[in-house]
Amino acid sequence: MSTTVERSGRSAHAEEDVLPGLEISLWERLLSPENLSRALRRVEANRGASGVDGVTTEALRPWLREHWAGVREALDAGTFEPSPVRRVVIPKPGGGQRLLGVPTVLDRLIQQAIAQILTPIFDPGFSQFSFGFRPGRSAHQAVRSARRSVDAGLRWVVDVDLDRFFDRVQFDALMARVARKVDDRKLLRLIRAFLEAGVMVEGVKLPTVEGTPQGSPLSPILSNIMLDDLDAELAARGHRFVRYADDIRVFVRSKRAAGRVLGSVTDVVERRLKLLVNQEKSSVRHAREATLLGFGFYFSRSGVKIRVDPKAIARLKMRIRELTSRRWSVSMFCRIDRLNQFITGWMAYFRLADLSHRLRELDKWLYRRMRQIRWKEWKRYSAKRRNLRQLGIGDRTSREWAASSKGYWRIAGSAILQRSLTKSYWDDLGLLGMQGTWRRLRTTA
Hints:
Blueprint lengths: L1 H7 L3 H7 L7 H5 L2 H14 L10 H21 L7 E7 L5 E6 L2 H18 L16 H13 L4 E6 L3 H4 L2 H8 L6 H11 L3 E3 L2 E3 L12 H18 L3 E5 L2 E6 L2 H18 L10 E4 L4 E2 L2 E6 L2 E6 L1 H14 L8 H19 L5 H23 L2 H10 L4 H8 L5 H5 L2 H6 L2 H7 L4 H11 L1
Parallel strand pairs: 1-4
Antiparallel strand pairs: 1-2, 3-7, 3-8, 4-5, 6-7, 9-10, 10-11
Helix pairs in contact: 1-4, 1-5, 4-6, 14-21, 15-21, 16-17
C-alpha cells in the first residue's frame, strides 16, 4: 500500500523537505502514505462484510496495488464517486429494526482516512461529557460519570431519545458544522459525496437526502460534530450530563426540573439541529429506574452502586440458551469454546457492576444446562451407567438412573448428576464460570 501511494504522490515528509515552513494542506495529509497505510490497517483489522461490489477486506490490499493510481487520480481531480452502501437490516434488542449501511472496502478505506484527519481537528474541542466513539474514551467512563452525578445528589434523570438520529441528520446542517473548522473545499466535497452516495436495496440504488449510515467509519466523528452544539448548550446552562453518541442523559435534582429540561433540550434538538426527539421513548425517571448503556444504579449505605439492566441479563440468558441448546449438534469442546468467548466478552463489558450474587445463581443454571447436554450425549443405558460409575456413583444407583425415564432438565437438576458432573468436572473441560470470570476481570481492570 505504502509503495503504491508513494508512486502516485509525494509523501508528507518529502513535501516538508522541499518546502520547509509551508503548512501541508488537509488534502495532502488525507492522501499521505502514512495516513492511508494506517487507515488500511484499521479497515483490515475491523474486517466486516463486503459492500455492493463484493470485494472483501482480504482482497483490498491486492486490489489497491493494481488500481490505487487511478483512484488517487480521480480523488485529486474531484471525479471520484463513492459506491452506494449496501443496506443491512438488523433487529434491535428492544424491538424494531436498525438500518445499517455497509460501504465498499475502498470507500471504508477513504472514510477511515478522512476520520483520522478530522479527529485531531474536532475531538479536542468536544465536551468532557461526550464519551462515544472518541479516542481514549469508553462506555465505562460514561457510566462512571453518570454514577458520580447521581452520587452528587442529582437523582432525577432525563433520557432524551433522538428519533432515528443517524437516518435524519440533514446534510446542509452537518456540512455547515464541519466547515467551521475545515476550509479545504476538496475535502468538504468528498465528505458530501459520501453522504450522498445512496443506498442499494434489493438491487436498486436509492438516493440519500439525509442521514449518516451507521456502519461507516466516518459516521461516528460526524455524529459527534453534529451533536456538539447540544453539548455546548447543556454545558452553558450548567447541566451535568452524559452523551454516548445519540444516547443522552441529563441529571438534575428534582422531577419538576427534569420536566423543564426535557422541554428545553427538545427545543434545541428540533429547532437548532433540525432533528426529532422521540417523545414516546424520552422520559423522566428516578436514578434507581434509569439505565445507561446496559447499566443501572442502586443505592446503598456506602453510596451509589452500579447494577446491570435486567434487559441485559435477559439477553445474556437468551444467548446462553442458544449456545446450550440440546438441538445444536456440535462437540462439547466446540460448545465450551463458544461459551467461553461469549462469557468473557459479556463479563468484560459488565465488570463495572456488582454481580456477585446474581452470577452465583446464573452459574448454577449454566451448569445444569450443561449437565442435560451431557446426559443426552450419553444416549444409551450402557453409556449412562458406565459414565456414572466412572464418575464415582455406585453401581446400583448408576443402574437405576441410567434406566430413568425422567426428562433431561429434571435429571440435570438431580443430586446424582450434581455429584458426578461437578464444577471441577467442567473446570477440567475448560468451561469458564460466569462468577469466576467476572471476579478475575474486575481485579485486572
